[in-house]
Amino acid sequence: MIGDSAGVHVVTLSFDDGFERSSIRTAEIFERYGLVAELNVLATGEPDEEWHREWRKGDFSLWNELKRRGHHVMPHGTVTRTRRNCRSRMHSG
């Protein structure tokens, strides 16, 4: 229980890999209900799995726009590549 929030339920949903169409649609749905989306985007290149390459991924322009709209966007991939390649490209605000 947090403070006097008895009866309040918290659910966190996280959307992975930053597929362009689903990121946009998820943001639209969450905005309609006054919610913030958690988007974990694959920002360090394509994984080896063939199925993953079938769908278009978002890019830093889209992800930064979603952040400006109030959503949480976090790049992921290998730790070293993510930190080195993505830190300066994702705006903090």
What features would you describe in this structure?
With 93 residues, the protein is α/β, with parallel strands linked by helices. It has one domain. It has three helices and three strands; from the N terminus they run βαβαβα.
In short:
Helices cover 32% and strands 15% of the residues. By secondary structure, the protein is an alpha/beta fold. It has one domain.
**Gap between N and C termini:** 30 Å
Helix share, percent: 25-40%
- Tally of individual domains: 1
Q: Radius of gyration in whole Å, from Cα?
A: 15 Å
Binned strand content:
15-25%
Structural class: alpha/beta
Order of helices and strands: EHEHEH
Mean pLDDT: 76
Q: Major sheet: order of its strands?
A: 1-2-3
Overall spatial form: elongated
- Uncertain segments: none
Number of strands: 3
Question: Major sheet, described briefly?
Answer: 3 strands, parallel
* Annotation field: number of helices: 3
